[in-house]
Amino acid sequence: MSAVHTLPTIVAEADVTDALRRDLTDAGFTVERVDALWGTEAAASLHRGSRVAALRALRARPTTPLTTLATLFVLGLPVSRVDADAAFPTAGTSAVASTGLVRTEADTVHPAVDLRPYAFVDDLGAGSWWIVSDLGELALGTALGEEHVLGIGGATTTLSGLQVPVPVRRVLDLGTGCGIQAMHARRFADEVVATDISHRALDIARFNAMLNGIDGIEFRSGSLFEPVAGERFDRIVSNPPFVITPRSEGVPAYEYRDGGMVGDALVETVLTGLGDHLEPGGTAQLLGNWEYHWGTDGLDRVRSWFERADTDGRGLDAWVVERERQDPAAYAETWIRDGGTKPGSSEFDRLVGAWLDDFAARRVTGVGFGYVVVRRPGPGGAVHLRRFERVPETLGSNPAGLGATVARVLDAAAWLAAHDDQALAAAHLAVAGDVTEERFYWPGNDDPTVMTLVQGGGLGRRVDADTALAAFVGACDGELSVAAIVGALAQITGVDEQALAADLLPAARDLVLDGLLVPAG
Length: 521
What we know:
By secondary structure, the chain is α/β, with parallel strands linked by helices. The protein has helices at 14-27, 31-47, 52-59, 65-74, 81-87, 93-98, 137-140, 154-162, 180-186, 199-211, 265-273, 298-311, 328-338, 346-361, 403-417, 421-426, 467-475, 482-493, 497-514, and strands at residues 79-80, 102-105, 108-111, 114-122, 125-133, 168-174, 189-196, 217-221, 233-238, 278-293, 317-326, 364-375, 386-390, 428-431, 435-440, 450-455, 462-465, 477-481, 517-519.
């Protein structure tokens, strides 16, 4: 196996992080300005694992604190001590080295971590931070160490976007990693508890919070719910170490992604433990993997976990969205590459074999990935949302993430539970502002052949509609009740009103839950 990089100890001291924050600000170390250093094509090349184009662009520019910071922390390359001193005029290179971010050798300064700007948009507006994580494979040139602390990735932004943008008192970030979810949660919470089994991850998360001037986050060490035994929270967020890894000798187990349990048992443990740690009305948003077994659907397995919780009296509202499914070989190859082992090497082939042996022994035919949203019913409340679905299509437009959609679905489920068919018939509904209608015609025909309701935001749902449903939705402007619209349509079309209501009321429920129709007012 390749040599593994020795990870530095990260030390957070307020005077140094304050000074470093000023240096990063003064240098203009932002996403926009760093991208402008080398352009979109080089940025895309970096994302693919090559820094050649970015380096060529930097060589054509004069050396400035910004180019030095980008070379050191984004490209993961050494810089001269003179240039480093110019980039850290307030903090000082020696003080930055004392935190563990860089190491010095004679007249050269080497990066010890990845430190890069991060920009985001949520319901409070645009924001930006700097995030420390461990050096990746590109900078190291070796496989990752098992204590590697991951930085910003696709899963990170997905989960941060899923967080419900509603102010609450307490949030738990279970498995905080570099701390990014805890930092996002703090924007909507009075206090946040961030836990992790990795002491190194907690050190980095604590440093990131301090570097960005974020208080109100308490960091605790321990596995899963152990650090918060007996405590309840208004919200729980988690990107748990859900990767399914063989529990066999010689297979690396990375703390940031491998939970140490067989198969998807860790995800099951987290989901079934949520009810004990949510306040009544509290919600949780998580990411996860689940296995498909021979003859058993993956989403049905997840459903069974919640059904077992029901029998224990810990029932939760649950909405599970599967976004992707991989066969065993593709799944194994994805995560072996993620650890820095290159395809085509003997080590890569050995690890693929170990993964496939494990899947075959447990009769695993595939692995699903997606989102899990839960809510603990309020005092005396009953479970009224159980939705397990596959949504592989492109999402709608969601600049601030899906958090508002999550909140709306939970609210819609509660509203629907409180409205039986009689109450729904008396309700006034309106078409959501992001809904449009597509119509397709055969050449020369006046009547459409296909009508589709299209959601512009949220999950970007597309709902095929017959003439009656399209007319019903078109009449939902908040002025008339559902019953009045159904009655008018029945009179116009000559259809039995009760039969039409039997068709349209269930469709209306689905459209309200999906967010294409909303209760007026």
